[in-house]
Amino acid sequence: MIYRLSDFHFPDRAARLYPDTPERPWVLEVGFGDGRFWPHFAATFPEPPNYLGVEISGVSLLKAARRLRAAGLTNAVLTKLPATPLIREVVPEGALDAIVVNFPDPWPKAGHTEHRLLRAPFFRLAASRLKPGGAVLLTTDHDEYFEFACQEAAASGVMAAELTDAPPAALETKYARKWRDLGLGANHARFVPTTRPPVPHGPITRYPDTRYPDLEDSPAVPHAILTLPATFDPSTFQKHTGRGGQTREDPAGWTVVLLDLYRTLGRDAWVVLAHVVEGELTQEVLIGITGREDGSHLVRLARFGGPIITPGVKAAVGVVTGWLEAQGAAVRHRGY
Ligand SMILES: C[S@@+](CC[C@H](N)C(=O)[O-])C[C@H]1O[C@@H](n2cnc3c(N)ncnc32)[C@H](O)[C@@H]1O
């Protein structure tokens, strides 16, 4: 089954994602490509474990979904997201039996190593999300990345590496076959947590399911109420960037780019299209500016597109409110 980010809970539970098989082992695969690993690996268990697959390529997502459906693997959830936010926000602590990474992108050029997945912060996150006895299983043809990953695991201070043969299923993937045809071998390591460090979930919530009659009683949806000046002229809108939220744990913080503003037809309302970047997670959200009966306006994150309410999304409502204040609006209430 394909899940969007907004379909998950933060964190989620195996019992909710796999209601028919909650007691089975739970395996996460990062970068599943065309999905060949899982049918082979699942067949080595008496019953297919629960599977969560994460991949950033939409084409791969569709190919893998078809393959898993054809193999009758129903207790499988696939999603198109970067792996780190999925693992941090969706997977509960101590929940996974294995995190599988087959032939990760090696980023071989000098100066590109910061793009590699298997760095010390990833190993700390993985250690916090694995069950006792769980492991990160890495298979790669790339000797230099393999060395790098082993060094990063050691530097994380929470993983011990066991070098073993790759599971046969990892040698059946598209990339495994590609490198084998070129005569390259595969390295395999099993990284086993030595301790479970606390890596907390972020302050992320779902868009509420119920609609509230009185929006001022709805703090969960970021909003503001303000009075626009009679001189308000939306045609003065210009693309605008705001940054903030940097902390020691999250040095990147959030970046909000207000891309455009559109007027709705027949109503006293506009929407702002905003691009929100928080580390690897990006969201395009709409923020409505809607006239109320008392003449004030409500600035509020719209449900459209299934947004997740993150610090950056709250900040986007603040950036829109700030722009309106700069146009002379008087803010009566801030709920973001
Ligand atoms: C070299 S391919 C290997 C694919 C597959 N595992 C195989 O062995 O055939 C690496 C895959 O990882 C995916 N990927 C890269 N970065 C990712 C990330 N941060 N989160 C999830 N998937 C990622 C890419 O889209 C690509 O499909």
UniProtKB/TrEMBL annotation:
Reactions catalysed, as given in the entry: guanosine(46) in tRNA + S-adenosyl-L-methionine = N(7)-methylguanosine(46) in tRNA + S-adenosyl-L-homocysteine
Lineage: superkingdom: Bacteria
Statement: the UniProt record of this protein carries the keyword tRNA processing: yes
InterPro entries from the UniProt entry: SAM-dependent_MTases_sf, tRNA_(Gua-N-7)_MeTrfase_Trmb, tRNA_methyltr_TrmB_bact
Entry EC number(s): 2.1.1.33
Binding site for substrate: K109, D141
Pathway: tRNA modification; N(7)-methylguanine-tRNA biosynthesis
Broadest EC class assigned to this enzyme: transferase
Keyword tRNA processing: yes
Residues where S-adenosyl-L-methionine binds: E29, E55, D105
Key words, A-Z: Methyltransferase, S-adenosyl-L-methionine, Transferase, tRNA processing
PANTHER family the UniProt entry points to: 3-DEOXY-D-MANNO-OCTULOSONIC-ACID TRANSFERASE/TRNA GUANINE-N 7 - -METHYLTRANSFERASE, PENTACOTRIPEPTIDE-REPEAT REGION OF PRORP DOMAIN-CONTAINING PROTEIN
Family according to the record: Belongs to the class I-like SAM-binding methyltransferase superfamily. TrmB family.
Described purpose of this protein according to its UniProt entry: Catalyzes the formation of N(7)-methylguanine at position 46 (m7G46) in tRNA.
Name by which UniProt lists this protein: tRNA (guanine-N(7)-)-methyltransferase
Native species: Deinococcus carri
Organismal lineage: Bacteria, Thermotogati, Deinococcota, Deinococci, Deinococcales
Gene: trmB
